[in-house]
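Hey, resending since the last one bounced:
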Amino acid sequence: MTDPSPTRAIQTLPVYPGDAFVVTSGVCEGEGLSFADELVMDDIYGLEAGAARVRISVALGADPRLFAVADGSEAGRVGNALALDCCLTLMAPDGATYEALVLVEVADGHAEEIYLLPLATLAPKTDYRLVGVDRQTATARFSEVACVSFSRGTHITMASGAQAPIENLKVGDKVLTRDSGPQEIRWIGQNTVRAVGAFAPVVIAKGTLHNENDLVVSPDHRIFVYQREDRLGAGRAEVLVKVRHLINGTSVYQQGGGFVEYFQLLFDDHQIIYAEGIAAESMLVDPRTRGALPEEISERMNQTIPGHRHRHHLDYEVQESLLSRTDAVDLLRRASSS
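The structure tokens again:
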């Protein structure tokens, strides 16, 4: 894979405007969502009728809690600051809890707009009691969503060609990479989360993309495809595709419910490795995902691996608009076949 010219790191977040998530009972009844200092515990919230998410594009900076509204955003004013304020814990009538992040758009030192980024699906006509407001965990939760993760049981191709379950790997083991040959694992992350919303894994069924077994990964995980024929119209042979853009309900589907155990693999550079025979990315370190790293690993990377090429593959990502067709998975399968 040849390096494209560097691009600015832009991410798109599906959010609700704050005035679409309103207090239906409590101290702030009738008011929309606000930032942490103005929230009142035990207030009950609900989504307004017809509430719809909008996409806000953000440019990542050095501060993991502060972004800038970028071109192409459906909400906010380009150039305004967007601050990660806090993480909310909401309780539904059945006792289930849900988490959501509060983002605050700032201009000239004043809050312009409030946005809600749910980490699980919120249902209309449902009461959600505010039972927790935490500023400290917001960065970690935001990072966890962005970290590309493999599920327990995923077979990784080692430097020797052997297939090893990801849970058996150790720091220092050498994994086969597409671009750099055998590379040592520098860190392995592991966490267990409820398989809901942004954390519910996506399953690529056995054989769908020539994979030997089901591949189960986090929704924003990107797989690499070399197109022998550009069937997608991407304008290049080498493409990266987010698995959530491939969901068709049959051969690629989201598996919600229960819990999922996720693993992250970190190398000196962002790499393309092989999981169940599918080329897929390793963890990419940027201002958003760095918050998921232990402090000592983050510090060591700053000092000894300053060249971590976290933008190495960004220009190869295929936009969702090219994958909106129902036969996108079949096109990629045929395009990558000899």
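Helices lie at 138-146, 295-304, 328-335.

Sorry for the duplicate.
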